Amino acid sequence: MSPTNELAAPTGLTLRRVAIDTYHENVAYLHRDCAVVRAEGFQALSKVEVRANGRRILATLNVVDDQAIVGCHEIGVSEDAFARLEVAGGHPASVSPAEPPESIPALFRKINGERLGRDDFRHIIRDIAELRYSKIELTAFVVACNRSELDREEVYFLTEAMVASGRRLDWNETLVVDKHCIGGIPGNRTSMLVVPIVAAHGLVFPKTSSRAITSPAGTADSMAVLANVELPFEQLTGIVRQHHGCLAWGGTAQLSPADDVLISVERPLSIDSPGQMVASILSKKIAAGATHLVLDIPIGPTAKVRSMPEAQRLRRLFEYVAQRMHLSLDVVITDGRQPVGRGVGPVLEARDVMQVLENDPRAPDDLRQKSLRLAGRLIECSPDVRGGEGFRIARDILDSGRALAQMRAIVRAQGDRSFDHHHPALGALTQAVRAPAAGVVIGIDNLQIAQIARLAGAPKVQGAGVDLCVKLGQQVAAGDVLYSVYASYPADLEFARQASERASGFSVGTAAQVPHVFVEF
Amino acid sequence: MSPTNELAAPTGLTLRRVAIDTYHENVAYLHRDCAVVRAEGFQALSKVEVRANGRRILATLNVVDDQAIVGCHEIGVSEDAFARLEVAGGHPASVSPAEPPESIPALFRKINGERLGRDDFRHIIRDIAELRYSKIELTAFVVACNRSELDREEVYFLTEAMVASGRRLDWNETLVVDKHCIGGIPGNRTSMLVVPIVAAHGLVFPKTSSRAITSPAGTADSMAVLANVELPFEQLTGIVRQHHGCLAWGGTAQLSPADDVLISVERPLSIDSPGQMVASILSKKIAAGATHLVLDIPIGPTAKVRSMPEAQRLRRLFEYVAQRMHLSLDVVITDGRQPVGRGVGPVLEARDVMQVLENDPRAPDDLRQKSLRLAGRLIECSPDVRGGEGFRIARDILDSGRALAQMRAIVRAQGDRSFDHHHPALGALTQAVRAPAAGVVIGIDNLQIAQIARLAGAPKVQGAGVDLCVKLGQQVAAGDVLYSVYASYPADLEFARQASERASGFSVGTAAQVPHVFVEF
What we know:
CATH class of the largest domain in chain A: Alpha Beta
Number of helices of chain A: 18
Distance between the termini of chain A: 49 Å
Oligomer: homodimer
């Protein structure tokens, strides 16, 4: 998408918005009998350039045989692509065979196993952020950078390029803290506790989060149960100035936009290689203006990281790139053997969080302890706090109700949604999943629980999800409820029920079979 | 696509054909406000299963905001996908989150650099042939198998799996010959000469070819100028029985269908790794029933293979896999420094071929010599021909007019199109490209000439293309015509003109700079 003064391609077409959301890929639609150009000839070339209004975009071409979708004198474009042209339908437009994006030779070199330089990554990431890559090219980049294909210097170049591809916030503060988890553990809503605790201590903590992509809830999804999370940038800044913290959706801020595009192909392939994970996470945090980051790496048999040596290798890569990018990083290795807390899904997780903030006796202790530990590490970034004191300070802030007050202030500032966690609005349809035999819970599969909650409708349906009744090491009798599934639509409940019948996610055995804790907790 | 007795997903939707050709990818379209399932929740999961008529397909989901495309009680599918369901629009249908194709764990192992076994390739290729892979998964497979990632045993497994994915013809003959070129050389229409020569000698030569994908003409495109090439299988068999040979389009025969799907992502990435090339070519030829194959590997600075050591490595891999598949293979290394013949494009290439068959003094000698050489090698497959005699026999057949008579018989049998090569129907719009300075032609870029012919409209527009006036080593004066571009549509001529202005494809210099011939010719 850039203005151009080049020779215009032959025109005679008008632009048409084709109301299809093609999910981070520009698609152009031409009628097979297009009056101006031969659609089928273009298709095999795979990429066309559409120009209108002095702008141009690259798009993948689909040939259409229905004038209700696109006529013979029209060039149709999908919703993303239409928005990028910033012009009304009916505007004159032209289409021509696309010159490949400038960075394609560098991509081909990477596919062929070469090491790339700083400028190569800059060009590739710029083209990706501007949606100039097709899904095919994106996938080729992701797979070619998979495994140990990127050395740590290349990961640094990639991170730097991703930061440069979008906006970079500057808070004019010497100390801006943030926290992040590498993901994969359902119910792990520590940010909604760590932010109010650390902000109550006075540190600046502008937390922007993504919405869930393949998980049943992201921080932004759960926070949206309590408050508005789609904040204009100026409002977000004001809230951080006044309350030291916020819990907002980062999507409007255009932070590391190439990351969102790359994720659209990484997730379907379950590719989460160390290099791409480091670049993705650090670029978002650096673009958000963080100076100090606490990073949570959970270990467990169904977590992203499954052994301590693997966690240590990942930690070293994070630390190397953070140091090159002048970010102070503190890695915390945590227990990822099972979901954190009880609820999995936006409303259920918001309920758990509020119980912890209110010091409710029903509050899940694992969520409380983990949040205090992470908050303590961040509080120790303050020059006046001695190492080892953070946990106690965090606990005092939580126990005294100051964290709750801070959260209430942030919620009011962002726009209170009046969530009543004593009467959470759960999905009206429910299904209990029961223990097939007596024994001790020896395994809870993070991936399967996430999948079931997702099928039940989370996060799109806020009240949908999974509510766990027992956790690792607990004794169950045959027929005891392991968890309840909540849904709002019959089809969703049915999808979730079928999945839980195939595999409930729970394993029951003897006390000796409970996997040991990889880390102190 | 397989019948199923499984528990049906919740339904209440009706099927709708969405007349969009998504080019070897099944796409499903759901309205954002679909009454039955949450379209956006599905989208991030990237793959859905659509069931109708006892059949099921996997598809990538696009969310739609226009009821003219798909309504709230409909599930739309793209043209390929609709055809696979074999049912009329309006039929009850259901959609559910897809279980990943069975072979995905094997794909992930390949992405992670593991060696795959025979069954892995069989499962992957079956899923690919049945369009169960998304473009993202296809690309991941292709990139993960690129470079030296496949050992020769794996290439054999891949070839075998590709043969097994489709139909395999059996001619009930001990000797069935075929020829193939690895491609990349415009104008290289030797098959249309080799088939009539070798068939006139009495060998069975059932030549099926593909249409051009990114080249300006395939054998099937040029043959279509002379005769019908879309033959029902029974007719094709009859012609081969009667005339020993045919020149038909292979698309209807379902030979190695996975290959066509893989090509749809390999071409945009210019990936043509040795392993994939060997599996692609040999699987097609073995599926077509060949027992003896002559393979043409051209070498040149803009050919696919650019050095003799590279050609020898490729030859050894072809020979290893052919031997494992019990195919007798004869590799011929040829001159790939420039296009073969004069014309590039269906009509222009058909004209060159007819001139050679008629022993017209204007016939391009390089096309004649190369065809005789390849035909000679095939004729030597006959038990009664001594090594070294083939070329002379082929030349006698051509010079005597027997090859022309054989071709005329084949053309009549397939359905004569009454092509008059003395007055070929070329595009009405033309543009001459001239030498900028005097000198000797020292380079003709195969890729650039192919691209210009393609932009001019070839192969969709039969009379479009490039007609070369001079070849390597010839002297030109400034302003001499190097080649003429033919087109039928103003937009096409303009695209080709712009491309030839950026780079004509010709280099002019001194006689000493003409690249040496890698091979005897």
